[in-house]
Structure formats: structure tokens, C-alpha cells
Automatic annotation (TrEMBL):
GO terms for molecular function: phosphoenolpyruvate carboxykinase (ATP) activity. Its EC number is 4.1.1.49. Belongs to the phosphoenolpyruvate carboxykinase (ATP) family. Involved in the gluconeogenesis. Catalyzes the conversion of oxaloacetate (OAA) to phosphoenolpyruvate (PEP) through direct phosphoryl transfer between the nucleoside triphosphate and OAA. Substrate binds at residues 60, 194, 200, 324. This is Phosphoenolpyruvate carboxykinase (ATP). The keyword Transport does not apply. It is found in: Cytoplasm. Pfam families: PEPCK_ATP. The gene is pckA. Mn(2+) binds at residues 200, 219, 258. It comes from Loktanella gaetbuli.
């Protein structure tokens, strides 16, 4: 039985997906929430939120993510970073997943990836779980009802957590698979209930498709000055570096918290919602995000609550440190209606330095920006990937290696040209440790990071006095309004300056060792900006 609104020529049967007992097309958030509760997937929380736990998988499974090795993508995929799947194995997996879903219920959401109509991708997401439908409806861009009757998917995602893949039969690594097939225009997700896989697989798709249209896809958040989209800022960063937190700045207009494209028209959000971490969420430091945790249909993932009062415990990480809430963009009071911005005036590269070595803010030349973009130094924070339990220093190229199907140089060249054409000012911001490494020091106060960003974005910081950092060669401001001068010089925040010097030297060597692989591909000015 079919329910809801759909293009009558584009039912699942028309895509070769048949045998389902019931298909719910394009249910709204209330209907998806009600269905999820009725099916026992989760419960209704305070303020009409939806509370859910995801079992074994509470973060992404990057090692189980594959690109199907078809001839059309053979020369363009960065295979060292994207494990290949044999097309025949994918076909078997596809047939087996459909057989498994047959006789059951599916939820179909027809959505857009991309706020700029010229570049958007029409994505159909077919989910076994009603709440995955709710999640992805919050996260992607919702068409008007009138657009649904002609909606024709460019790509289809089929997400079936109860299907357990078999490494012997499907050529995979475990029972969990995220497989992207660019030729068939299908993504299969099995064996994981973690909702983030849905949105990050759309991101990976766009990261592959958009460069051919001259668009730079970016793992970044974005906002612009109030009433002035010309003054746009983007904040690159791997998971946990502060994209979501820092873009929700009450004095600016939020464009988006995680994934954007930069075209010759400016910046556009790929999404229509946000996916925020809730661990330790402080209503004073992050009131806008905190408030979404009591709004109707917000998906609250893997948070512990008191069953008597339904009160959420923001400090209980017993299910995972990667506890989350997902909500539509307009739940943030100052979000943009269009999710479009201008060309970035400022480009912030966020790093969570667990060594406590990098200054809280540094100004980068375009060549240094390219160097740091390709290096992607940061830490993986606890929980976002399976097996990571404490900050783990890493070089994640483009500040998002797990989502980059092409070689880093492809993204590097696009970014470099756009920075050169539009003259953005670039900054490196350490939201990680200060006063010592992880274990001794403490996390950079959000207040200080916000004050430094305000000064960078309002144009005052660029005119201040800088020192050249002896280890890294970038410019570090000596003072900034609202921030203790000492904090700007990490060496002074360490109890033992010699220990700082030793740690800094180690980090310089790590940068140098990591960057060797990019040297054959880069221009002389970036080579000159190299560290170590
Ligand atoms: N100085 C800081 N800047 C940004 N975030 C910080 C800072 N100190 C602590 N945090 C915490 O770090 C986390 C950043 O996560 P989030 O903004 O979700 O990152 P991302 O969106 O890049 O994955 C939040 O839980 C935030 O409260
Ligand atoms: C959803 C994710 O993104 P982020 O942590 O960058 O918000 C993720 O990495 O799983
Ligand atoms: Mn985020």
C-alpha cells in the first residue's frame, strides 16, 4: 500500500524496488515522529522532541565505507582513501537488501541537497526506520508539496540497519556497509542505526559531483553579518572542532553548520538542518542550540534521560560522547531563510589541537592556508568514529578526509583559485587545548574563541599587531579585545616553556612528515609555506 504524495511515475516500483507491504512517501515531521513512536523506535521527550538510541553504532564507521569500482569513476576516485567495492559484490548486496526489506514498511523522503537551485541534487532517501526519515527530513532541504509530484531522484539512498552484510558474500569488512555506487546512482547503508551516515553520505556524493561544475565543496559551517550576506565567513573543521557551535553566533546570520558549496555566485548550504553535539551543552554558552533540545520533533540521539521527569542529562556520556540533536535550520533564531551567502570574506580553519601547541588564532597567507587545508591537522574527538575514546591527533586532509572521494589536490586547486579571485582573509583557530596538552591543560574557553572570531570577522583583528610564530611561520596577534594577552601565546600558558618547545618541535616534525606526500603536487609558494 502506498501512502502520501509522490511523483506517480517515480514510485519505488518504477525504480525496480518492489515487494514492500507499505510505503510512506514524504510524510511530514509530525507523521514520521508518530510512526516512529508507534513502531517502538523511540519515545516522545520534553517539548515534543523525539528520543532515540542507536545501539552498537553511535558514530560513523569510516572503515566500512566503500566506493563501487566502476569504470566511470576509475580515474577520478582517490582509492587510497576510499576502499573499493567490486560491482558484482554491490549487486549481490543490493539484491539481498531488497529481498530482506520485502514484505516490510519503507519510509521515502524526496529531498534536495543544495540550497542553490542551480546546483542542487535531488536525493531520495528510503529508510527502514521512520525516525531516519525524520532525521534526514530535518537535515536536507525540504521541497514544497507542489514540487513532489514531479520529483525525480538523481540519487537514491537505501538505509536498512537490520540487514547485516556478510563479508564472505558481499566483499565487505563487517556487517556494516556504506557503499556508494556512482554508476547506478545508489547508496546502500546497512548494519548501522547511527543517523549521521545518512547526511554524510549525501555530503560525500556532492563532494564527488560538484567539482566538475567548478564548485568547491567544503566541510565547513557558514554565517554572514546581519542583513549583509556580502560579509560571509566559512569555518572549516573536522568533527568536534566547533563548526556547529561557532557558526550559531547570535550576532550573525546562520547559513549552515556543516556542509557548503562555493560557486561563482557565493556560498550555499547543502543542507536544511543541523546536527549538534549535546555533550556538556551549556545553556549559557550555547543557548540557541540548547533550546532546540526542547523543540517539537528535534531528534535527540543517544542521550540519557530521567524516565520520571523526562529531563535530559547533558553530562551523562554512558551511551556515547557523540550524543546529538538534529533539528531544522529555522530552529536557530537567526538562521538564514535562503541558506545562501556571498563569497567568503573570511575563511576560518578550525583545529582541535590536543597538544596545546597552536595559538588560539593565527592569520594565514593564501599559501599557508593551502598548506593547512591540505594538511588538515586536528584531533579526532571521542565518539564520532568507532573506536576513538579520547582526542587523537590526526591529519585529515581538507578537514574532512572521510568524506573526500577525489584527491586532495583537486579540492586544494579549487579553493586556491577561489581565494585568489575573491581575496578572502584566512585564519587558523585552535579550539583544542591550552595551558598544556590534553591531560594537563584545558580546552580553550568558548568565550575566548568567540571573542577572537568576532575580532577577526568585524575586521579589527586584521589591523592589530602580529608576531611571527617561530615554529609555524604564521602571524599571531599580540592582543585582542576580551582575551587575556597570555592566551594568545601558548608557550606562556604552559607551566614549563621548555616542555612547550619540545612539544612544538614534535608537532613541526609531524606536519613535515605528513606533508611530504603532497609536495609533488603543489606550487612553489605552498612549498615555501611548508613547516619544518
Ligand atoms: N573553544 C571552543 N570552541 C568551540 N567548541 C568548543 C570549544 N570548547 C569546547 N567546545 C565544545 O566542543 C564541541 C564542538 O563541537 P561542534 O561544534 O559540534 O563541532 P563540529 O560541528 O565541528 O563537529 C562542542 O561540544 C563545544 O561545546
Ligand atoms: C555528523 C558528523 O559531523 P560533525 O561531527 O562534523 O558535525 C560526523 O562526523 O559524524
Ligand atoms: Mn557539526
Amino acid at each position: 500500500m502506498d501512502h502520501g504524495t509522490v511523483n506517480p511515475e517515480m514510485r519505488l516500483e518504477d525504480q525496480g524496488i518492489s515487494g514492500l507491504a507499505a510505503v510512506y512517501y514524504n510524510d511530514d515531521a509530525d507523521a514520521l515522529h508518530a510512526a516512529a513512536v508507534a513502531r517502538g523506535e523511540g519515545i516522545t521527550g520534553k517539548g515534543g522532541t523525539f528520543l532515540v538510541t542507536t545501539g552498537k553504532h553511535t558514530g560513523r564507521s569510516p572503515k566500512d565505507k566503500f566506493v563501487v569500482r566502476t569504470p566511470d569513476v576509475e580515474d577520478t576516485i582517490w582509492w587510497e582513501n576510499n576502499p573499493p567495492m567490486d560491482p558484482a559484490d554491490f549487486d549481490t548486496l543490493y539484491t539481498d537488501v531488497l529481498a530482506h526489506m520485502s514484505g516490510g514498511t519503507a519510509y521515502v523522503q524526496d529531498l534536495f541537497g543544495g540550497a542553490d537551485p542551480a546546483y542542487r541534487l535531488d536525493v531520495r532517501v528510503v529508510t527502514e526506520l521512520a525516525w531516519h526519515g525524520l532525521f534526514i527530513r530535518h537535515l536536507l532541504r525540504r521541497p514544497d508539496v507542489s514540487e513532489l509530484t514531479t520529483f525525480t531522484p538523481d540519487f537514491t539512498i537505501i538505509n536498512c540497519p537490520s540487514f547485516k552484510a556478510d563479508p564472505a558474500r558481499h566483499g565487505c569488512r563487517s556487517d556494516t556497509v556504506i557503499a556508494l555506487n556512482f554508476e547506478k546512482k545508489i547508496i546502500l547503508i546497512t548494519g548501522t542505526e547511527y543517523a549521521g551516515e545518512n547526511k554524510k553520505s549525501v555530503f560525500t556524493l556532492l563532494n564527488y559531483l560538484l567539482p566538475d561544475q567548478g564548485i568547491m565543496p567544503m566541510h565547513c559551517s557558514a554565517n554572514h553579518a546581519k542583513d549583509n550576506p556580502v560579509d560571509t565567513a566559512v569555518f572549516f573543521g573536522l568533527s568536534g572542532t566547533g563548526k556547529t557551535t561557532l557558526s550559531a553566533d547570535p550576532s550573525r546570520t546562520l547559513i549552515g553548520d556543516d556542509e557548503h558549496g562555493w560557486s561563482d555566485r557565493g556560498v550555499f548550504n547543502f543542507e536544511g538542518g543541523c546536527y549538534a553535539k549535546t555533550i556538556g551543552l551549556d545553556p549559557k554558552a550555547e543557548p540557541e542550540i540548547y533550546a532546540t533540545c526542547a523543540m517539537p520533533n528535534t531528534v535527540i540521539e543517544n542521550m540519557v534521560h530521567d524516565p520520571a521527569t523526562m529531563e535530559l542529562d547533558f553530562n551523562d556520556d554512558s551511551l556515547t560522547a557523540n550524543m546529538r540533536c538534529a533539528y531544522p535550520l529555522h530552529y536557530i533564531p537567526n538562521a538564514s531563510d535562503t541558506a545562501l551567502g556571498g563569497h567568503p570574506k573570511n575563511i576560518i580553519m578550525l583545529t582541535c589541537d590536543a597538544f596545546g601547541v597552536l595559538p588560539p588564532i593565527s592569520r594565514l597567507t593564501p599559501a599557508q592556508a593551502m598548506y593547512h587545508f591540505l594538511s588538515g591537522f586536528t584531533s579526532k574527538v571521542a565518539g564520532t568514529e568507532r573506536g576513538v575514546t579520547e582526542p587523537e591527533p590526526t591529519f585529515s586532509t581538507c578537514f574532512g578526509a572521510p568524506f573526500m572521494p577525489r584527491r586532495p589536490e583537486a579540492y586544494g586547486a579549487l579553493l586556491r583559485n577561489k581565494i585568489a579571485s575573491h581575496g578572502a582573509t584566512c585564519w587558523l583557530v585552535n579550539t583544542g587545548w591550552t595551558g598544556g596538552a590534553y591531560g594537563t591543560g584545558s580546552r580553550m574557553p568558548i568565550k575566548a574563541t568567540r571573542a577572537l572570531l568576532s575580532a577577526a570577522l568585524d575586521g579589527t583583528l586584521v589591523d592589530s599587531t602580529f608576531r611571527k610564530d617561530p615554529n609555524f611561520g604564521f602571524d599571531v596577534p599580540l592582543a585582542a579585545d576580551g582575551v587575556d594577552d597570555m592566551l594568545l601565546d601558548p608557550r606562556r600558558t604552559w607551566a614549563d616553556p621548555a616542555a612547550y618547545d619540545a612539544q612544538a618541535q614534535k608537532l613541526v616534525e609531524m606536519f613535515s612528515e605528513n606533508f611530504a606526500k603532497y609536495v609533488p603536487f603543489i606550487d612553489d609558494d605552498v612549498k615555501a609555506a611548508a613547516i619544518g
